[in-house]
Design a protein that fits this description.
The complex is a heterodimer of chains A (140) and B (135).
Chain A: H1 3-29, E1 45-53, H2 57-61, E2 66-75, E3 81-84, E4 96-99, H3 104-138
Antiparallel strand pairs in A: 1-2, 3-4
Chain B: H1 7-33, E1 43-44, H2 47-56, E2 84-85, H3 98-133
Antiparallel strand pairs in B: 1-2
Chain lengths: 140, 135
Amino acid sequence: MDLFSTFDISASGLYAQRKRMDVIAENLANMETTRTENGGPYRRKMVVMKAEGSKSFDEILAVQSEGVKIDELVEDTSPFRKVYNPGHPDAGKDGYLLMPNIDLIVETTNMLMARRAFEANVAAMKITKQMAVKALEIGR
Amino acid sequence: MPGKLSFKNTFSALEQAMNIAKQRHSLISGNISNSQTPDYRPKEIDFKTAMARALNSGQKIKTAKTDPRHIDVGTNSISGVEPFEEKGDWNGYNWVNIDREMTKLLENNSRYKMAAEMLLRRVSILKEVIREGGR
């Protein structure tokens, strides 16, 4: 196991958090979407993360440290928001319009968490770099 | 620590220390990248135990030999310490305490740096001896 595989671990964290940001951005962009391909309003999406061990032979022999991957992209099954808006073409007979089940506060909080987790991974990566540089000093 | 603290032994001890710090760093990085993984339990190795094991046991990988002409695989980059799952508090999502992991990251980095710095100084002592001896 070398330091470079540690870079991969941090990179997997960066990738997962960025992907999560993508999904959050998609949710925010679709906060008011009432028409989708499947019919009905847009459903909130979320990512499910999973720890994943490295596949290299060296890694399996050595200490198992796990990176992370996006296991699946799921839809939030919570009920849609109901807004009284009889003038809207998609509103029901009772005048209520079904809006996506997206809560701005939830999305913002998740966004913050994704950002912090991303930063934590960057910090880990920086230290990996420092360690690699220090190891190179010995060879001088 | 077995034997005398000879020049050579110090070298290998420092090398092992760097190796363990590297492995631990890898585990901590894994914990950080999994800080948002549901149900994840952070992994950890104990530096002291790993160091003691690395110094006491030989550094050869033991492989089954079916023929007397088979040779050893060579030195072991693995100290043979199994990581254990760290005890932590349930944060409603998993068992990772991100502050703790970040602190560990820094602490471990200092250990690594310290070992590397010591090794560097050993090398400079060696250089000095060679230079003075050649006069």
